[in-house]
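Interim report to the steering committee. The following record documents the input for Putative Iron dicitrate transmembrane sensor FecR (311 residues).
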Amino acid sequence: MNEATAWFMRQAADDFSGAERRRLDAWRAQSPAHARAYDRVQALWNAPELQQAAARSVASDTIDTLRRQAHRSWRRGSMAAAAVFLLVGMALWSDAVLMWLRSDYSTGIGEQRVVTLPDRSVVTLNTDSSIAVVYESDRRRVELLRGEASFAVQPNPERPFTVESRGVATTAVGTEFLVKDRETDVQVTVLSGSVLVADGKRRSDQAVRLAAGDQVSVGPQGAGAVDRVDTAAVAAWMQGRLVFVRTPLADVVHDLARYHRGYIVIWNPALQSLPITGIYNLSDPSHVFTTLADTLPIRMVRLTDHLIVIR
């Protein structure tokens, strides 16, 4: 794989010669394994997942520029992952700076943090999460800028406590609940008490009331069905674990990726729906991927400690 990545990046350089092209063609023709390795690296470089990650905070013309710069800066003996992370890393760094400017409290990747607010309500931030806090005389408002958090709210009927995320407002008087920004929707789970979940894009009379053990997801099409869930499993991250019950591999990877300093790609689309059941310790996220590869019909390729391909 290393030799394939070296050839792939070298062929995109401005000074790639005709003689080198003939050597590359000869190397690819040398064995089917060489050709497959080269094709895999090329597909990874053009993977839409990497494009989407960068597009969150970098304009498309900038992405193309970064790709060209990464190609031009390539030297023999380097890893293709370095160029990939030049692209993705700059996007995430830009996003992180903007988030830092807006947030009052935040966590890094793999970090959790407990924050006591002025009214003694307690917020537990999960990995890679940020909140902004606005307390006024008649209300308490917290904006979940990204990630996931638990809110244990001190009762005060005269000052409702509201958590906002992507236009979805969850209001409680005295209760404990989780809010998770899943990028495509917002998930709310009630651990105790009750809350009112309102979508800012819809009428107030369409708000959903949840009791302990209820969970709802609100996306562009509004609120989905209210589900009854195992709250201990949903909140297991607060004890350093993740619990999955017949969860699609794509969702498992999405959750685990939030604790991993790097990027993870599911190479084979057919694997995305593979059901996963298990309890995984978050103290070593990299080991979780090794466990998955050892116990499931999948293969895991580590291009570096920060770039994992599942196929």
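Residues 56-64, 69-81 have pLDDT under 50 and may be disordered. The committee is asked to note this result when reviewing the revised timeline.
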